[in-house]
Design brief:
By secondary structure, the protein is an alpha/beta fold. Helices cover about 50% and strands about 10% of the residues. The protein folds into three domains: about 20-215, Rossmann fold, CATH 3.40.50; about 220-300; about 300-380, Arc Repressor Mutant, subunit A (Orthogonal Bundle). The strands form two sheets. A five-stranded parallel beta sheet has the order 2-3-4-1-5, sandwiched between helices. Helix 12 (about 255-270) crosses helix 13. Bound molecules: adenosine-5'-diphosphate (ADP) and magnesium ion.
């Protein structure tokens, strides 16, 4: 049996007890939920939204008696998709008495819903012409049922909510239900694409305009990451030593990138040992090798002006309009000016507090910068070549 397992998870949401430094955000979410306010939560991909939401649901159930349901809307493409996801979310989250009550209610609606295995997905498979809309209406009204079954308040989280923006009329349909549920349910709409989230919530003629309090998830503080990483090395009979600082510098507070680098570093260090700078370099190289296909695909997903603008940002250390960079890349200011908002809409880049722009993912930024073949600055790249 393997007992010496790598304690750094980076490929899936982390369990509630492993969430670093999000206490204030969890408390905020719960305060809004208990007060019946709806929240839209924005953060780039891999910033820990799902981890945070799972923790908020967990805490909300325990400390506030909320009935938590997390609905994953990742890449939903149709009303049928949304209906299936919503039904499965209830199937996953409801337990005990309440589950029994909801199940018998669903059976009685006669629209094909069930929390068991033979639910709406199976029905749609057998009868593709079946209209999923009545089932969706019934599911969206479930919070009223939960209230009727014992005064429960539902805490419903739509994760990757921006993906409903691609389904005609769905935001209107949703609003028609939730606008009357303030007394019985609280909603969180979480999303990773600022452009689509803004379209849904900040466009005057959209149904959800102004309907939810905005919240933003930031990077993690170096001090919190340092503490977390050092503790987990210690707890597994290792010490992170001098490798910690270059790790934190490269991760730049990006939650998933920090964990990926910590995972790789840990794998370099034998039990009973302390990490060295050589270990760190090996870990860094291994991480970049692992990410190569991901970055290559990400790069190919951009058009030429997007690619060049990313390179201009790295060449100018945040200022994309430097003359030398524009010349080098055969780029004009006009092209950059048009590319910036598109890159920002998908959270490829963000405006920095200090001014200028930054690539959101620090490892992707390093990868892009390699394309520039600049004379190497060891302190900046953290890798000896
Ligand atoms: N607060 C946190 N504490 C520890 N790890 C985190 C935290 N937030 C994010 N992570 C790391 O990021 C990864 C992705 O988190 P996830 O919740 O799936 O992000 P998102 O839903 O924003 O894409 C996790 O596997 C974990 O390694
Ligand atoms: Mg997620």
């Amino acid at each position: 049996m393997i007992v010496d397992v790598n304690p750094f998870v980076y490929s899936r949401p982390v369990p509630p007890e492993d969430v670093v430094d999000r206490d204030a955000e969890v408390a905020d979410l719960l305060r809004h939920a208990v007060g019946g306010h709806y929240v839209r939560l924005y953060a780039p991909r891999k910033y820990g939204k799902t981890s945070l939401l799972t923790r908020a649901l967990h805490d909300g159930e325990r400390s506030e008696g909320l009935i938590g349901v997390l609905v994953d809307l990742y890449r939903v493409a149709s009303v049928a998709d949304v209906t299936v996801r919503l039904e499965r979310a209830y199937a996953k989250h409801l337990r005990g008495d309440l589950r029994g009550k909801v199940e018998s209610f669903l059976q009685r609606t006669g629209v094909g819903l069930s929390l068991g295995a033979f639910g709406i997905s199976a029905r749609l498979q057998l009868d593709p012409a079946r209209d999923p809309l009545p089932a969706l209406h019934a599911l969206l009204d479930l919070p009223l049922r939960l209230e009727a079954s014992g005064g429960f308040r539902a805490f419903i989280v739509f994760d990757e909510f921006q993906d409903i923006g691609r389904i005609d009329g769905l935001d209107g349909l949703l609003r028609s239900h939730i606008q009357h549920q303030g007394e019985v349910a609280s909603y969180v709409f979480a999303g990773s694409e600022p452009g689509l989230m803004r379209l849904l919530f900040e466009t005057k003629d959209r149904p959800l305009y102004g309907s939810a309090v905005p919240m933003r998830l930031g990077r993690l503080a170096d001090a919190d990451l340092a503490d977390y990483v050092a503790r987990r090395f210690d707890a597994s009979g290792r010490s992170v030593g001098e490798a910690l600082n270059p790790l934190l510098a490269l991760a730049a507070g990006h939650p998933q990138r920090a964990m990926l680098l910590a995972h790789r570093l840990w794998a370099e260090v034998a039990q009973g040992h302390e990490a060295t700078l050589d270990d760190w370099q090996a870990a860094h190289v291994a991480a970049m090798r692992e990410l190569e296909p991901e970055f290559d695909a990400q790069w190919r997903g951009l058009d030429a002006s997007g690619q060049k603008t990313l390179r201009a940002i790295t060449l100018g250390d945040g200022s994309p309009y430097r003359t030398a960079a524009l010349r080098r890349l055969d780029l004009t200011k006009d092209v950059v000016r048009r590319a910036l908002p598109r890159l920002a809409a998908t959270a490829e880049i963000e405006e920095r507090e200090a001014g200028g722009y930054g690539i959101v993912d620090p490892l992707f930024a390093a990868w892009v910068d390699r394309l520039n073949d600049r004379p190497v600055d060891d302190a900046r790249s953290g890798v000896r070549r």
